[in-house]
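Hello, quick one for you while I still have it in my head. No rush at all, and the record is pasted right below.
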Amino acid sequence: MNIKYIIPVIVGIALIAIFVIIPGSEPSENSLIITESSDDGIMITNGQKHLVPLDKIKSGGPPKDGIPSIDNPQFTEASNENHVSDDDIVIGLEINGDARAYPLSILVWHEIVNDNVGGVPVAVTYCPLCFTNQVFERVINGQEVEFGTSGKLYNSNLVMYDRLTNSYWSQAMGKAITGELTGYELNIIPFDVITWQDWKNLFPDTVVLTTDTGHVRAYSVDPYGDYYTDSRIIFPVDNNDDRMHPKEIILGFDDGEIYKAYKQEDVESSITINDQINNKPILLISLFQGNARAFERTLDDKVLEFFFDDNKIFDTETNSEWNYDGIAISGPLEGTELIRLPFNPGFWFEWVAFHPETEVFGES
């Protein structure tokens, strides 16, 4: 796993304690006593709507907006940047020809970027505790909204709030878990977790988020130290599972309440994986270290099988050649395009905390 700017352990632990780890001293929200449940899983406790138990939503230390979102992001051309190394990890996003990169070295200090990419309002989000990256369309009931950090965690994962209704949202679930919008689910937009060099190779015209955030932060260091590779899980989670190391990077998929996890390293070593989830045929492919993409592999009701040969992607049915965007570039299917699928990349412990019944690719 390629995480840059790992600082000495003592300094790292100190920064974590100051920045995110010290628990708050707020009274338990579970002191409420009158609870009703509905068929859709939404509970009402003393008039408060919620989707998860209130006592499981924990303080992460900072207050609301104590970790400030970036609401007016500034970008520069790739040729002009001098704050990102080629092997730094970025969230890469391309919508309607607009390609942008968001370095994790900046996001670790802010966790949310409210942006507009290719005409689409998006929230680019990152939870360092879980290494979960996700991009949401920040439109609720047809209205554009901003998201901020609530200072809370659920299953050690970022809890956001929207600045329209002040409802709380679980990043991992992509759903509102308390407040007026409880149960509302955001649209997820496919993106890449990828090195800056590889993203530039894919999109030479990309722009990249700068450190001109309006806040003073030590963007050259990572406050989490060696947390990303050791076995510590600092905040409580609902379920532990020793099928793999808690910090193993997985790609989590769900379809009709069927859940499945793939090790990132398995996709990288195989390059292409033809599989299915809940009878939906899918393709996973990785052409770059630490990166993967997923597609539906059904085209006109016909299921395709894919393979990688001579640095090219082909389907076995027509021997058409495909690019990394899921578009056939030669052969009988030239010009056709597969549907790209979103998924949930992050640490194993986080995925299994939310989905204890998950399948794991490769298990019998």
In short: The chain has five helices and 31 strands. The CA atoms of residues 23 and 61 lie 5 Å apart.
